[in-house]
Write a structure and sequence with these properties.
Chain lengths: ~110, ~170
Amino acid sequence: MKIHPFAGFRRPLGCGLLAVVLAVAAAQAETIQVTIDKLVFSPKTINARVGDAIEWINRDILAHTATVKGGWDVMIPAGKSATLILEKAQSVEYYCRFHPNMKGRVIVTTP
Amino acid sequence: MFSRKIAAIAAFGLLGAPLAQAAEKPTDPQIAHIAYTAGTIDIEAAQQAIKKSKNSKVVGFANDMVRDHEAVNKQALDLVKKLKVTPQDNDTSQALTKAAASERGKLAKLSGAAFDKAYVENEIAYHKQVNGALETLLIPSASNAELKTLLETGLKIFQGHEQHAEHVAAELK
């Protein structure tokens, strides 16, 4: 394999640039994970900013939903995960349509 | 009035009497059998509703019941296999099965909105009674820790079903 004469120089620069780009992207939007285990959303309440995403990770053997009355309705199949991007500032309670005793809250603020 | 009558039948005929007979503390193999039977009964009730009902909300609810109870029963079977426990038939399981067959017979004679209402009201009453039995008899009597945990999770699931059924009942009104 032929080594590029500038490889040693270029690689660190490239990595550094990528790291900067990723850091900026991370500061702009995060993915917040919520685990579902034995019918409990955890953490129960999450604080997020517009543009952030929530990823629900369902560890149960049952399908669940994350549903807001008159708002979003996310299906989370058994043993799978589902993601929602938060598009507006709001403070809402959500529940599972199949098991309405499961409740969580999302507080979304403008960045 | 009709729904109250169904609820009363469910409360006293379906579970009150069978569980009163089981005043003695059931053993783990009996508890496993009762829990599995209770799940099977709800699956059969749901299958009847899927066949008979034309209401999408009722059919949707019934499909949710089949999916959840099949998943829980599969987990229960896996656990008894792992624990090398053979579920043991008992008076409570037999009385439950008999009462459920009679309930299905009554529901079979109904159709349309009357069927939907009776099915959903019975689901509320049935889950309420099963949850009561889990809380006061089955969970406290279970001696194996894994069986107890399974029953406790089952209770949370069925409490969810009870509320789900209440939501469907409110939408039917």
